[in-house]
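Box 3.1. Reading complex inputs
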Amino acid sequence: MDIERIGGGAKGRSSGTAYGGLVWAVAVDPKSSPSMVDQTRGALARIDEILAKAGTNKSRILNATVYVSVMDKKDEMDVAWVEWAGDDPKGWAQRACVGTKLAPGHLVEIVVIAARET
Amino acid sequence: MDIERIGGGAKGRSSGTAYGGLVWAVAVDPKSSPSMVDQTRGALARIDEILAKAGTNKSRILNATVYVSVMDKKDEMDVAWVEWAGDDPKGWAQRACVGTKLAPGHLVEIVVIAARET
Amino acid sequence: MDIERIGGGAKGRSSGTAYGGLVWAVAVDPKSSPSMVDQTRGALARIDEILAKAGTNKSRILNATVYVSVMDKKDEMDVAWVEWAGDDPKGWAQRACVGTKLAPGHLVEIVVIAARET
């Protein structure tokens, strides 16, 4: 079974991969906005794009890891997350949020695993 | 193929998800015990609960990520982990343990991916 | 469906697991070299070994998480990563690199999920 690769990352890596019924995606805010809310919105919009290229969408995310570089701003990240996740629990991913160092300028980086129809 | 969601988290997220033969689960200690050993036991007991709801158990965990907020207490986490993992290597997950910031009061947060019969 | 376990870790955990078409692997540099480039090469060589035991290889990695304990040395990690990932984008994993604390002596720890033929 073939692996699909979605480009857009630096040399040596993909922004997304898909294999059978599963899709992986990683994103940061392409604009490196100064605010955590805006960076989260930017990263989640990028996740939406990658999932669309792989034939799925945010309502089918299974697992998400949210890395934030400033844990004191987790609440701001959550504002954008809840807005994006929507009101239907049938679309809510299992999620962990942890504070880590990130590359300069990044406040948040998000990795998800989603299901797709095959 | 449907995705199953196991609730119990905050708005916008699930404690567990299941899709086909795979299950994802996240847990912290619901009691926020002051000791790392106790928090780890509490989080692992919660993992057991979520896996049971998804029709599997700890002997079928494939991958685990253990986030600890105080790396100096990793040995205490390991005491609870080894006790929980048991003596049979056939049930031992691939695991990584890393030191990250966590939400206030949490010493450990655990994410696992497990297999289940379909 | 059986789960395959690849040993080599400490008590209570495996270095790798395989289930159906998916393989999980974790590695650090077995030699704990003092340089980030060398530790990354050592960890990636160990990943190669585990994947080989599970019947796959680096060109089929779907997702990678690179934990580095010194984010200022991420560029050195990337030198080894790019060299290892090779020139063909068809083999490039979705990857996230974050700065975390690691066990003493470790500069980098790598976890991957790969596809394999079943």
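In summary: The helical segments of chain B are 36-53, 74-85.
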